[in-house]
Amino acid sequence: ERPNEPSIFERRESVVRSYCRRLDCVLDTAEGSLVRDITGREYLDFVAGAGSLNYGHNDPDMRAALIAHLEHGGISHSLDMFSSAKGAFLTTFESLVLLPRGMDHRVQFTGPTGANAVEAALKLARKVTGRTNVIAFTNGFHGMSQGALAVTGNRHHRGSPQNPLYGVTRMPYDGYLGDSVDTADLLDRMLHDPSSGLDAPAAILLETVQGEGGLNVASSAWLRRIAELARTSGALLVVDDVQAGCGRTGTFFSFEPFDIVPDLVVLAKSISGYGLPMALLLIRPEYDVWLPGEHNGTFRGNVHAFVTARVALEKFWSTVDFSADVARRSQMLARQLAGVGDLVPGASVKGRGMMCGIDVGSGRRAETVVRRCFAEGLMLETAGSYDQVVKLLPPLTTPDKVLHEGLDILLSVIRAAAS
Ligand code: PMP
Questions:
Q1: Which one of 54, 142, 146, 271 would you pick to mutate in the ligand 1 pocket, going by the greatest count of ligand atoms within 8 A of its CB?
Q2: Taking every pair of C-alpha atoms in the chain, what is the biggest distance, in angstroms?
Q3: Ligand 1 pocket by Cβ (under 6 Å)
Q4: How far does the centroid of ligand 1 lie from the alpha carbon of residue 219, in Å?
Q5: How far is the CA of 419 from the centre of ligand 1 (A)?
Q6: Per-residue pLDDT tens for 92-147?
Q7: Which atom belonging to ligand 1 lies closest to the Cα atom of 212?
Q8: Ligand 1: residue whose CA is nearest its atom 5
C-alpha cells in the first residue's frame, strides 16, 4: 500500500477528522488560491486553512525567507528566549501594526493555537480584575479547549455536556433578538440592575464578525456601546480577532473602523502568513500583570512562523494599497453574491469584507452546496447555528479572475440546488 492511499487514513486515523469527510481528497501541493491532490486535480481553495491563509498558499517571498533561515542554520526552537527571528518580527509588528494605530500593547506569544491565546486572555482578565465572570455572546466561537469552549456559544461545538464550563454569562449578540431589540441595552440594564443576577464581569469577549457562528456582523454603534459598557463596568474589552483579523475584513484589525481599542486582542490563524502555528495576545501595558512563566507552554512563538510572519507584514501591510485592494475585492464579492436571494427564496448574504457567507436556510442544503461545489473543484465550508451558512474565506490575494471562477461555480451550484 502506498503511503498516500486513502485507506491508510481510514485504518489508522481517529474518526475525529472532519474536513476530510466533506472535502475528500489527498492533498499534495498548493500555490496561492489553488490546491492540488495526488492525482493532479486542482481545487480553488476558499477555505484557506479556516482563515489561516489570508495571503494564500506558499507565498514565494515567505518561502524564500524560510529557506534562507534554514540554510543559515537558524535556530528552530528557542522556547520563549529572545531570538533574532523574534526580534525581527516584533520590530516589524511594532512599526507596521502597533505604532501606526496608536497602540502600545505588549505582545505575549501564547501556545500555538487561537484557543490557547483566548485562554490566556481569560486568565489575565480575571487576574487583573479579581473577578470571575466573563461575558461572551451567543454564536461566539473561541476554540475547543475547555476554557475557550466555556466562552463558545454553540452547544454543538461543546460536545460533551458534562464538561464543566464555569464562570461565563452568555448574552445575545447584536441582531440575535431581531432588528428591533438593541442587545446592548439589555446588557446595560443587566449590568446595572442588582436583581439581574449578572456578576460584575472580568471581561467582555467578542468577535466583530462571528466566523464560525455564521458570519454575523456587529454594527458600529453596538460595538462602541459594548466597548463603553466594558469601560464603565470595569471589565476588560477583549476582541477575538483570530479569524476576522490580519486583513480579513479589509483593515489589519477588524475593529479599526469603529474607533475602539480593546484592552486585549487575540490573534492567531493568519498571523504567521504561511499557515504555521502561531498565536498571540496583545495586552495594554497596564494590564501586563503576569508573573514570569504564569501562562507558559513549550511551543510559544514558533521561530519559523516569526520568519514568515515578518515577511507577511512587510509584503502586505507596509502600504495602504493592500487594504484598498481587499476593499475592492470585497465589493466585487458582495456585488456578485447580491442576487442570491433571487435564486434561493429566503437566502441571504452575510459578513463583512472578504469574510462572507450565504445563509441558504438549512444545514442540509448548505451541505449539499458544499459537496457539489467540491465536485466542481471549489472548496468551501459551512458555519452558523445549524451549519446553514455556506462560508467563503478566499485568500485575500486571490486574483479577480479566480474569485470570479469560484463564484461562478458557487452560484451555478446554488441555482441547480434551488431548482
Ligand atoms: N477564535 C475564533 C474567532 C476562531 O474562529 C477560532 C478558530 N476557528 C478560534 C478562536 C480557535 O482557534 P484554534 O482553532 O487555532 O484554536
A1: 142
A2: 67
A3: 50, 113-115, 118, 141-143, 207, 211-212, 240, 242-243, 268
A4: 22
A5: 36
A6: 999 999 999 999 999 999 999 999 999 999 999 999 999 999 999 999 999 999 89
A7: 5
A8: 243
ipTM value, please give it: 0.99
Residue type, 49: G
Mean pLDDT of all residues in 84-99 = 98
Substitution candidate for ligand 1 out of 18, 139, 141 with most atoms within 8 A of CB: 141
Which uninterrupted H or E stretch holds 124?
helix 114-129
293, pLDDT greater than 80: yes
End-to-end Cα separation, the chain, in angstroms: 43
Atom of ligand 1 nearest to the CA of 112: 15
C-alpha cell at 192: 446595572
Rounded to the nearest angstrom, the distance between the alpha carbon of 267 and the centre of ligand 1 is 9
Nearest CA to ligand 1 atom 13: 114
Q: Tell me how far the alpha carbon of residue 2 lies from the centroid of ligand 1, in angstroms.
A: 34
Residue that has been written with the C-alpha cell 447580491 in this structure: 338
243 alpha carbon to ligand 1 midpoint, in Å?
7
| Phi, psi torsion values for 323, nearest 5 degrees | -60, -45
Provide the mean pLDDT of the chain. 95
Report the alpha-carbon distance of residue 48 to residue 34 in Å, rounded.
10
* Order of strands across the sheet that contains 106-109: 106-109, 280-283, 264-267, 236-240, 203-206, 134-137, 168-171
- Give the whole-angstrom CA distance, residue 148 versus residue 111: 13
Taking each helix axis from N to C end, the angle separating 60-71 and 303-317, rounded to the nearest 10 degrees, works out to 140
At 37-54, the pLDDT tens digits run: 999 999 999 999 999 999
Q: pLDDT band at residue 1, thresholds of 50, 70 and 90?
A: low
Give me the DSSP letters along 167-201.
Answer: SEEEEPPTTTT-TT--HHHHHHHHHH-GGG-PPPP
Cell of 107: 505582545
CA distance 350 to 359: 7
Residue-wise pLDDT for 372-388, tens only, equals 999 999 999 999 999 99
